[in-house]
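Lab meeting, item 3. Inverse folding demo.
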């Protein structure tokens, strides 16, 4: 999408794949990097979404003591 262009040879999804991040941690990175890019009005909301995914990951790790298995 045009509003996510970073003028680089890679995108956030490439970083997530390179580091083999699961869904939750991948979304943390995605929301932090893209916070406020689409709209300055959603900067705080984007960071709150990152916190939400981080809290989900922490809860999972506390419950199961390991990373969630990847599906892809």
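The presenter then showed the designed sequence:
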């Amino acid at each position: 999408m045009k509003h996510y262009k970073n003028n680089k040879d890679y995108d956030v999804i490439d970083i997530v794949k390179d580091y083999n991040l699961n869904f939750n941690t991948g979304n943390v990175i995605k929301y932090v990097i893209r916070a406020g890019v689409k709209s300055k009005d959603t900067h705080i909301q984007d960071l709150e979404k990152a916190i939400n995914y981080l809290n989900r990951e922490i809860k999972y790790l506390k419950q199961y003591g390991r990373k969630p298995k990847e599906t892809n």
